[in-house]
Amino acid sequence: MRYDIVIIGAGIIGAMTARRLAMQKRSICVLEKESDVACGASKANSGIVHGGFDPEPGTLKARLNAEGIGKLYKAAKQLNVPIKNNGSLVCSFDESEDGKILELFERAKKNGIMGVSIIDKNKIKELEPNISDNVRIALYAPAAGIVCPYELTIAAMGNAMDNGVDLKLGFEVSSIKKEEGGFVVSSTDGKRVIAGVVINCAGVRSGKISELAGAETIDIMPRAGEYMVLDKSEGVKTTRTIFQAPGKEGKGILVTPTVDGNLLIGPTASLVDEANGKDTTEGGLNAVMRYSQKSVPCIDYRKVITSFSGIRASEKNGDFIIEESANVQGFINVAAIDSPGLTCCVSIADMVAETVNNIAGEAPINTRFNCIREDTHAFRKMNDEQKDAYIKEHPDYGEMVCRCEHITKGEIIRAIVTNPQTYDVDGIKRRVRAGMGRCQGGFCGHSVMRIIAQVRKCRMEDVTKDGADAKMVKGRV
Amino acid sequence: MLIEHNIVVIGGGPAGMAAAVAAFDGGEKDVIIIDREDETGGVLRQCIHNGFGLHKFGCELTGPEYAEIYRNKISERGIKLYCNTTVVSIDNSKTVVAQNRDGILKIKAKAIILAMGCRERSRGALNICGTRPAGIYSAGAAQRLINCYGLRVGERAVILGSGDIGLIMARRLTLQGIKVEAVCEIMPYSGGLVRNITQCLDDFGIPLYLKTTVSKIHGSKRLEGVTIAQVDDNNKAITDTERYIPCDTLLLSVGLIPENELSNMAGVELDALTGGAVVDQNRQTTVDGIFACGNALHVHDLVDYVSDEAEIAGRNAAQYCLRDGSFSTDAICITKGKNIKYVVPQRVDLRQKDNLAIYLRVDKPLGRALFTVKTEKEIIAKKLQIRAVPGEMIKIDINKNQIERVGSNIEISAEALN
Questions:
Q1: pLDDT tens per residue across span A32-85
Q2: pLDDT tens across B139-169, in order?
Q3: Distance CA A38, CA A41 (A)
């Protein structure tokens, strides 16, 4: 199969890029080695719309962050992904940290970020009463926000697919060869696609992909970040995202509500090899608890419902790499996308689109492109009367499956059949939050398995957690 | 659709069924049960082992058999059931909003009985390090997959936690040909019933490792193994005792948490010690006309006691309706003293002139123990217990004459006897 463009990697950058490129008349395919989209850094990060004060002035990160904030809010709205402009505070808790806060303020100005201000303790406590009494000053960035990163990825890819983009899951790229007709991209199990342009959005594996294509050496140093998620009862402890002054231990541990109402604390930052990045560690989780306490002392750690570790694709120079390879024409690296990559996902996609146009020439506008994705949360936003009427038409929506998050059978079936489709228990969890609540699927797991089996027309024992090797059970008794 | 019912029982497990029957027999005929599953019985339906009903019916029943007795009582009385129906909210005016395949149901109740049961603590709450592969189940979830669906959860298992469900599942897996490598318990003693340790572990030669936990989970897709380690006195894993056990299944039986999200919505005061509502001896919560019983109130070890307690709640909910809401919530408090983990009820309405039964758990194994019930001035009751362990609930009866004399708060404490 030949495509104008092949994108390697279905994380947030690959998905947003695919969606952006689909606005022009082009054939596009996204290759992903996992069984679902958003399986790398995109499923396990802070989910923050960064205010733009952090990147070094003059870098790509600084420019794309400043441009990206507004673009992200707009795209999330089109995709019907919950996003909340809750603002953020970077706080000092010790005199020695004050200078760092003022430095960030200066940086914000240089980066062209409007609306940020330095606020004093009284104002901070007024905004966030649960913040530690040791707080001194803070950089307040009202434009900052929160968004669910995997939901955004799923929605972006879904919308891209609705507009004609192909997604090939389980396609682990093992070779990229430039031949006369274009690039031949092959997988470990012998599948292949042909591409005019190849875009490398492979996250922690982007160095490897660049190497396969014979392009520049990119030295990705995966960094793991461990997090803890707390029950919704703790999600009210702060309204804004609370950062600590960046110090020698990195950007520090943040405390933030999530768009779904939980409390998220983390991340740590440790260099790892790719294989171990998804392990949580005792030291890491202890550090998350110890340092989050510095910002918000009243967090009830007994309300932790899950913890996770995510890998970030950092590179030694610290800036994004978004450019066509100098030695392999038609091969574009979009690599080293660590923080604030999520905030920049739309501005990165725009930049990639420009690069593609420079290589392949402007393509005509896709007049049938529809930027709106149907709201997958429509049911839960209804009032009782609307729900009643809807259930009468669609009885599956009356059947509660996940009691913690109030997710119905109707919503689960819909998630299974909507682009990008999934038959994995984890895929369902990331799409509709069934199993994401305080019981972590203890009650609804079997029902979700049963529904997947029903829709997929398979046996319950064939249902997987995340991909073919992750069988939920091992046959029958 | 707004409908009215005098008593709405939320949950059709053992507590909800017994409460509804007692309310009906107490004279309040307009009682309904709402349950989210397709039939009543709650967790009993997946408990196919025996040992239920020894206290209540004097014979050993399986879970489904025990449930059947109450299911028959309900149908004999014509008590209305809403199955496959999930309550999504309640408020302090006792309006219940529920949802099923027919739509949204709004029910105005005079009294509500909270009988939602409990849930199992999950892996996330334990902060076990490592990866997140398939093959990690709470013991009850695995029990459901095996007993209700006939699914084989794995081939080789480790069980963390020696609560009763964990012990029962160790035997269940073994009977199914699934090798149970170990049961690990972080405490120096098991939280399960003695009879379960004998019948489920000892009889099958399954090792129980005390003061031992799972310190790491291995495997990227399906579980490949766990690291277990002994713990120090702060429950921290001791690194040089770590040992790797290959397994594809990890079951967690690490505690049960009363389900009280609905109680919170109605503003019911909760007891941090039990995780359930604060109640008086009638099992009335701090919200007038809302009662609580069963594992939603506090976690029981025997279903027989759940039924007893639910009958108290049901009877009093009926009284509440018949007297048209004349109950007062004025009460004295019962608090825990030395060596006591919690007490239920936490309050006593002194106008009630019945004998008082106090249920409690000790916070560590005491062996032979003497329990003392005292006011600020005097000791009003004592009880000698041959064996006091946290896994077994203890009941102390206080004579109504004593209660009548008492005007102040009561404290209960326990002393280990040698």
A1: 999 999 999 999 999 999 999 999 999 999 999 999 999 999 999 999 999 999
A2: 999 999 999 999 999 999 999 999 999 999 9
A3: 7
Chain B contact set for A229 (CB, 8 A): 124
CATH number of A22's domain? 3.50.50.60
Given phi > 0 = left and psi -120 to 50 = alpha, else beta, which region is A237? alpha
A174 touches chain B (CB under 8 A): no
A296 with A276, same domain?
Answer: yes
d(CA A32, CA A65): 26
In this complex, is the C-beta atom of A58 within 8 Å of any C-beta atom belonging to chain B? no
Check residue B319 and give its pLDDT. Answer: 94
Domain containing A226 equals 88-142+221-310
pLDDT digits (tens, 9 = 90+) for A241-255: 999 998 765 668 999
CB contact under 8 A, A442 and B140: yes
* Residues A15 and A156 occupy one common structural domain: yes
C-beta atoms of A465 and B134 within 8 A: yes
- Tell me the chain A residues in contact with residue B101 when contact means C-beta distances shorter than 8 Å: 391, 395-396, 398-399
* Residue A473 within any structural domain of the chain: no
Beta bridge partners of B343: B360
Task: Report the predicted TM-score, pTM, of the whole model to 2 decimal places.
Answer: 0.94
Position A331 in a domain: yes
Residue A471 lies in a domain: no
Residue pair B34/B8 in contact (Cβ under 8 Å)? The answer is: yes
Q: Cα(B159)–Cα(B251) distance, rounded to whole angstroms?
A: 5
Burial B363-385 (b: 16+ CB within 10 A, else e): eebbeebebbbbbeeeebbebeb
ipTM of the shown complex: 0.94
CB-CB contact of B67 with B36 (8 Å)? no
- C-alpha span between A166 and B359 (Å, rounded): 63
Is residue A377 part of the annotated active site? The answer reads no
Q: Same domain for B20 and B111?
A: yes
Does residue A351 fall inside a structural domain?
yes
B120 touches A at CB < 8 Å: yes
Task: Give the domain CATH number at B388.
Answer: 2.60.40
Residues B290 and B345 in one domain: no
CATH (domain of A439): 1.10.10
The verdict on A34 and A105 lying in the same domain is: no
Backbone angles phi, psi at A206, to 5 degrees: -65, -30
Q: Which residues pair with A186 in a beta bridge?
A: A175, A192
Structural domain of B240? 122-254
